[in-house]
C-alpha cells in the first residue's frame, strides 16, 4: 500500500527581477517546487519558450538582379547567401493581422544597408534596426522586397515555397521564435 506524504508542493510565488530586466532579457524566479521537479519543469519551460511561441520572420525575398539564392548582385559586396543569413537575424513584431506583410528596402546610395532601412507599414515593428544586411559599394538603385509572416518554430526555405512561386522570389529559412536563448537554474 503506497504511503501518502501530504499535499503536492506547488509554486506559490513567481517574481521577475526588475533590476536586470531589459527589452531583450528577463529573469524569473518560481518557487517552491516539489523535490525533484525543478529540472523537469525547468527543461519543459525551456523547450516551450524556444519552440512553441509565435513570432514573425522573413519567409521570402525578391532582389532586383538576383534570380536565386546563389546569385551575386552587381555592386553588392555580399552574395545572396550571405544576405539571406543576415536577413534571418532581423526580428519583427506583427500587430493586428495574420496576413503576410510586404516590406521594401529602396536605396540609391552606397554604403551599409541595415534593418533600419526597411520601410515598415503600420502593422510591423522592427526590433533590431542596427542589424547589418548588406553593403553597396557604388551609388546605384537597390530594391529588395521582403515578405514577413507569423509562424511558430522553424521552417526551411522549401517549407516556405508557395505553389507557382514567381522566378526571382527566393523562399528563405525562417526562425519565428521571439526567444533565442533560455537558461534555468535549480
UniProtKB/TrEMBL annotation:
It holds the Pfam family RNA_pol_A_bac. Its EC number is 2.7.7.6. GO terms for molecular function: DNA-directed RNA polymerase activity; protein dimerization activity. It comes from marine metagenome. Residues 25-186 form the DNA-directed RNA polymerase RpoA/D/Rpb3-type domain. This is DNA-directed RNA polymerase. It catalyses: RNA(n) + a ribonucleoside 5'-triphosphate = RNA(n+1) + diphosphate. Belongs to the RNA polymerase alpha chain family. Keywords: DNA-directed RNA polymerase, Nucleotidyltransferase, Transcription, Transferase. GO terms for biological process: DNA-templated transcription. It is an enzyme of class 2 (transferase). The keyword Nucleotidyltransferase applies. GO terms for cellular component: cytoplasm; DNA-directed RNA polymerase complex.
